Amino acid sequence: MGRRSIKESRQKEIIEAFYQLAIKEGLENASIAKTAALININPSLVIHYFKTKEYLVYGLIEYILDKYLLIYETPAAYRNDPQKRLLKVIDNIFSQKWNTLFDDSVSYSCYSLAFRDQNVKENYKLLLDTLRSNLKDIITECNKQGVLAVKDPALVADTIFVMVDGAYYYLSLVSNKQEYKKKLAQYKSLALAQLNFVSSSSAKALPKR
Questions:
Q1: For the stretch 11-32, what's the b/e string if a residue is b when 16 or more beta carbons lie within 10 angstroms of its beta carbon?
Q2: What is the pLDDT of residue 199?
Q3: Fewer Cβ atoms within 10 A, N terminus or C terminus of the chain?
């Protein structure tokens, strides 16, 4: 299933309301009626756009992706410097910014539905594949510019996001802020170790992967 646009303002408003309900009451308790009541519209208008709660969930996964893609937003000055852009993206991924882009409880609730709903499974995989593909493209551009020597950008991008998925799943259980920061820094260092920098003023040369 390809990506569906939720950029239309009313659709986005509905999805954002559904998201806020899911945060407050849990995804399983969020409903079309409650979503409509939250933004003071008729439930029939929600149904017009999303038919059923399942379609609201599909839209919510699109919303998750749009939020997570914000990690790829970097300063305009980095546009022609893929190395700085890559390092900034890695900083974004392994930072509080990533963990505040979207509520973990809602994200994991959506993910759990992938085991029972084929559309959710396909949409969630598309979400994760898109994040990986964007990182692969930056790594590939760094290779072209001669600042990296990564043999398989797709594999390295996938490996880094496998680390990201595991890291934040574990860190969601860590309450101590110092422990959280320490482990996040460790995971970031391990992610950087997957990259083979030819030369860098901000990251030391690392062994080829």
A1: bbbbbbbbbbbbeeeebeebbb
A2: 56
A3: N
Q: Which fold does the domain 76-192 belong to in CATH? A: Tetracycline Repressor; domain 2 (1.10.357)
C-alpha dist (Å) from residue 200 to 81, 91, 153: 12, 15, 18
The SS3 assignment for 126 reads: helix
Same fold, 9-51 and 76-192: no
Sign of CA dihedral 176, 163, 141, 122: negative
DSSP H or E run through 98: helix 96-101
CATH 1.10.10 fits 9-51, yes or no: yes
pTM greater than the 0.85 cutoff? no
Per-residue 3-state assignment (H helix, E strand, C coil) for 134-165: HHHHHHHHHHHHCCECCCCHHHHHHHHHHHHH
pLDDT digits (tens, 9 = 90+) for 137-167: 999 999 999 999 999 999 999 999 999 999 9
Residue 25 near residue 38 (C-beta atoms within 8 A): no
**178-205: average pLDDT:** 81
